[in-house]
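Kindly review this record before class:
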Amino acid sequence: MLAKRKMKSNELAERIGLTTVNLSLLKTGKIKAIRLSSLEAICKVLECQPGDILEFRED
């Protein structure tokens, strides 16, 4: 979605109020949970639905 919106990760992080490190951890799947408020902010900025950016993976 970042590429579709022609946006860099650091711009998204700034606009949603996350550090670039935390956003990077989200993008790489190195964390197991996300606050709904963070997910909502990401979806608002990227103008998308959660299903557009999330993927289920069994451990």
Q: What stands out?
A: The radius of gyration is 11 Å. Residues 9-53 form one domain. The chain has one domain: 9-53. The chain has a mean pLDDT of 93.
